Automatic annotation (TrEMBL):
Organism annotation: Musa acuminata subsp. malaccensis (Wild banana)
Name of this protein: (wild Malaysian banana) hypothetical protein
GO molecular function: ATP binding; calcium-dependent protein serine/threonine kinase activity; calcium/calmodulin-dependent protein kinase activity; calmodulin binding
One GO cellular component term: cytoplasm
Entry's transmembrane regions: none
Amino acid sequence: MSEALVRRGYQIGVEIGRGRFGVVRRCRSEATGEEFAVKSVEKRVLADAVDRECAAREAKVHRLAASGNPHAAQIHDAYEDDDWVHLVVELLEGPDLYDRIAARGGAPFPEPEAAAVVQALAEAVAACHLRGVAHRDVKPDNVLFDALGQLKLVDFGSAECFLGADGGRAPMRGLVGTPWYVAPEVVMGREYGEKVDVWSAGVVMYMMLSGGAPPFYGDTAAETFELVARANLRFPSRVFRSVSPAAKDLLRRMLCRDVSRRFSAEQVLRHPWITSGGLSTVEGASRDPSLATERPEGPLLRLCA
């Protein structure tokens, strides 16, 4: 595996992560001395046509999503041969958001801290959507932070472009993502759009405010999918007693089963809980007409054609 990367001028280092199909290692450019992470996916272990298609387009979609997006990990190089796909990306050495949640030992994030993370995550997702890219696997494991503490969305292996060749929206299909975080329309086998990322970001927000418990959890993937499909959102008093009405209001709007009423990423950024840094009351939401209904957010960039 590493021979192809060595020929391209990289020194391969230690393993720093591993996923369902890929392994991530440190690497160093011999030309510049700069350090990166390289994600390598072995083609023979890809389970089905959907996985193979995702691996084939990951580099292209990642470049689109990360272009001008400060909250997405940047991609520096890509290489594919008969057996492997290699992506050289920005090296992010800090703990991911899942580790940060776990390190709190069940204690919830203070709302201002949670609001800062949700704001940055919504900015990352909104920038992806502006470029016509849906991430489709937003979860704490894929939220990292650079040396300055800036949030970075990573792993675009499940991402897809939702714009057609004519610039119009092309609906997506396929059960893609991680059970706790997928939206109801994905679980139910329907066509879906980019708001699946908002649902997933809502799950992330819920977990930060609940001390790590997801809103829909079953002992098996099938049980979890059933609970997601029902989308019966609850706020157990023992966990959410001290959580503000504004935070719960935003969660209801992100974790809304009705896609037409679910917030877009841009609407999340305009919600009072976000604009006040986690300190607002819910009354502000009812006074802002832009939050009550969907409104156009400007033309999508035609980058996926």
